[in-house]
Design brief:
This protein has 1 helix and 2 strands; from the N terminus they run E-E-H. It has 54 residues and is of the alpha+beta class. The chain has a domain of 35 residues.
Length: 54
């Protein structure tokens, strides 16, 4: 069993809000939960990481 931590941060990388989901849940669930917490911004940076055992 695993989990995913979705986060919104400010421009300095300081956390503003978090949302945790089960590892098998789609990333869209976490993103949708945090949309209302996004501050007004001129630009946005998103990242998604994957594990590779090779």
């Amino acid at each position: 069993m695993n989990t995913k931590l979705h986060a919104v941060t400010d421009a300095e990388g300081r956390p503003l809000s978090f949302f945790m989901t089960a590892g098998q849940v789609s990333d869209y669930t976490g993103a949708a939960a945090l949309l209302d917490d996004l501050p007004k911004a001129q630009w946005i940076l998103g990242d998604r990481g994957y594990d590779a055992d090779w």
